[in-house]
Fold this sequence. Notes:
By secondary structure, this protein is of the alpha+beta class. The protein is built from nine helices and 14 strands.
Amino acid sequence: xxxxxxxDIALQxxxxxGDEVMSYYRQGNFDTExxxxxxxxxxxxxxxxxxxxxxxxxxxxDIPVISEELDIEGxxxxxxxxKYWLLDPIDGTGEFIIGSGDFAVNIALIEDGWxxxxxxxxxxxxLTYYGQKNxxxxxxxxxxxxxxxxAAYKPGQAVKVAISRRQELSLxxxxxxxxxxxxxxxxxxxxxxxxxxxxxxxxxxxxIGPTGEWDTGxxxxxxxxxxxxxxxxxxxPLSYNRRDTLINPDFISMGNGDFPWKQIIHPHxxxx
Length: 272
C-alpha cells in the first residue's frame, strides 16, 4: 500500500476519532480515571481508541499498532516491526477535561524507527495538521489546505517560546539564556505546541517531564517537514521503538535551524 493511501487512511481515521471525542466533549458526559503513571484517562480517550483501532485493523491489517491506551508489547516483539502505527487518541486529555479545546487526535506512521507520516486533528478547533516524508507539512481548516513552514530567523528579534497554560514561567526561564529576549505563547497539548512551531507561530518548546513516544511521533514528522526538529535535552535525536520503555527523555522542539539554539537553550540544565 502506497504512502499516499496510508496518509489518507490516517487523515480519515483521525477525523472519525475526533467526531467521537466531540460527542463526549459537547455533552460533558464522560468518566475520568487516573492511570498508574498519574495521568488522566477518560471514556472519550477509550472511545477514540476503539474507533482508531477498528479502522486501522480493518484497512491496514498487516501494520501493527502502538497506542497510549493499549498494553504495549515487549521490545523483543516490537523490534522486528519495519513499520507501525503510533497513536495518542487524545493528546491533551487534561485540556479536554477542563474544556479548553486544546486537545488533538495524534496518528503517526513509524518506519525504520522514524516518523514518516504524521496527522494531528484538533476537532474543537476544526483544524488538521499533517505531514509526510518528502511531501511537506500542511494545515487544513475552514480556509482550505495550505503548506506551512517554520518562522524565519531574524537576529535581534525576541524568541517565541510555546508554553502550557498552567506552566510556571520560572521553571522554563532557568533553561533559557538571559542574553536573549523571549515572548511566551500559551497553548494546550504537546502536539499542538509543536504544530504552532511548524506553522511559524512560535520558535521553540521545552518539554521537561515525562511524555510518551505517542506524544511526539506525529508532530515530529510535521515539524521536520516544516523545517524544524525535535531533539532531546542534549541535542540528540529522539528514538522510536528502540528501547524497552516508550517514555521520552526531556526534549526541545525547535523551529528554524538558523537560530543559535545551543546558545539560546542551556542543554546541560535540561538533562536529567
